Amino acid sequence: MTLIPPPEAHTSQNPALNQALQTADTLARQFATTAAQRDLAGGTPKAERDALRASGLLALSVPTEFGGLGADWRTTLGVVRRLAQADSSLAHVFGFHHLMLATVRLFAEPAQWQPWLSQTVQQRWFWGNALNPLDKRTTVQHHTGWHSFSGRKSFCSGSADSDMLIASALDEASGKLLIAALPTARAGITLHGDWDNMGQRQTDSGSVTFDQVRIEVHELLLKPGPLSTPQACLRPLLAQLIFSHMFLGVAEGAFEEARRFTRTESRPWFKSGVSEAGQDPYVLAHYGEFWVGLESSRLLVERAAALFDAAWQQGDQLTAEQRGQVAVAVSTAKVASSRHGLDLSSRLFEVTGARATQGALRLDRFWRNLRTQSLHDPIDYKLNELGQWALNEQLPPPSFYS
Fold first, then answer.
1. For residue range 155-194, what is the model confidence (pLDDT) as tens digits?
2. 187-225 burial by CB neighbour count: b if 16+ within 10 A, else e?
3. Quick one: which of 73, 156, 285, 361 has the most CB atoms within 10 Å?
4. What is the Cα–Cα distance from 369 to 348, expressed in whole angstroms?
């Protein structure tokens, strides 16, 4: 299967980075060959996660001074997009791994996150997510010199087979959310393996239980803390960009699968008057619409990623106004990539025909994956925020989802 490459080659003067990007392309092609079967099986893609570990790509966004490859976010997100063309579950856990690394860099002090990044490279740690700020069933208990988390978290993507977790708990006394970085294997943590959804079936986004899990003070991300500064408020924008690149990658993967099938397997309708399905005027019109949607999404997603990189480089000099401008661009890209991706992945059967619905192909996985992940936070609320900006010039207020 020939998939559309990410924009530009992202070549640099760093040979190790260039080699890693070639490896990402090789892995994506490899993952594509088993994506349909693994979609049916569900569960943890252990072999594929280990392949990502061995590839060195888990160090992609880690600065070179800590042993990483020093990629900017456009490059890292480009790999998320490339993987999503082949298998959006793997793109999801890979993207979230780098989101967790960004979380500790944005919410914690350098003395905390620098050793974590170095160990991620040295020990090939895969980070998982158990933050989910909307699920408040996990609470914190205070002890002399330490804390503990108890409760349950849902939608813990990538938690299975992870080495480190970002977890949160509600401090009921203050009403604040406390976030910690801790080893997944710590006593009291139970991964339930109860993820069995219609899409994103290998993201292991099930639930995690915390039973008086000990949290050391140095594991809490307190300074500057969650969403405490304009720079810290870049975290939710990176999460939204990961989704946008995933959605675009899914749409590109669906487009290439449909294109291949139309050209090699589909049969022209008897009233079309043409000898090949690829010359049917209605089929061509659909592909034209698909192309417009893809190109629109690409331009918006790439622009948002470039603006995010520029904001990231501002560091603690970033202003709330600058951060808000990036939020508008990211939300715009998220809406476009979601809508165009859902449209293309659901309509691909109109250009491939009844033969494309055979179960072994599982071409519906593109729509199921995108539909499942696009419900992570409602597009309607993104449009409301964009409407406030377009009409009233009010920038989106920071939250864990905007």
1. 999 999 999 999 999 998 899 999 999 999 999 999 999 9
2. eebebeeebeeebbbbbbbbbbbbeebebeeebbbbeeb
3. 156
4. 14
